[in-house]
Predict the 3D structure of the following.
Amino acid sequence: MKLTTKGRYAVSALADIAATGAATGSQGPVALSDVALRQGISLSYLEQLFAKLRRAGLVESVRGVAGGYALTAPACETRVADIIAAVDEEIRTTACATGSAIGCQGTSARCLTHDLWDELGRQIEVFLNAVTLEDIIERRVAGMAAVNAPIRENSFAGAAE
């Protein structure tokens, strides 16, 4: 599994725009050149990503001297999963494609650990759907993935004896 720079940079750039709007008290447009400088991302690469983000309806562009890009929805409604999907990013945790007749091992068989990696992919998807840009800029992401391990019957049988 690998999250490429497309997804990471798109999330970073939109978090930057959301944070800039929160810091200034306005959700006006932010110049992409400013985002590129603050985030250390190539301007031409950001322009390619923002074309996809605009087509997905996550940002709108404003022309002119005070132009730039603005979020189309509040940061609290903009989910990280939507940003990653908008830039054509697929997070794959298995070697085989979903619904393919060819399994993980290049045959019709799936590998022994297939269900583990497949479930990990679902957990990542659930997590990214639960995180918003507001969560990122308000630093509420740390600890969000914590889950309680399932309690198994008789898991401590004999421990107290």
Remarks:
- The domain at 5-91+132-137 is CATH 1.10.10.10 (Arc Repressor Mutant, subunit A).
- The chain has a mean pLDDT of 82.
- The chain has six helices and two strands.
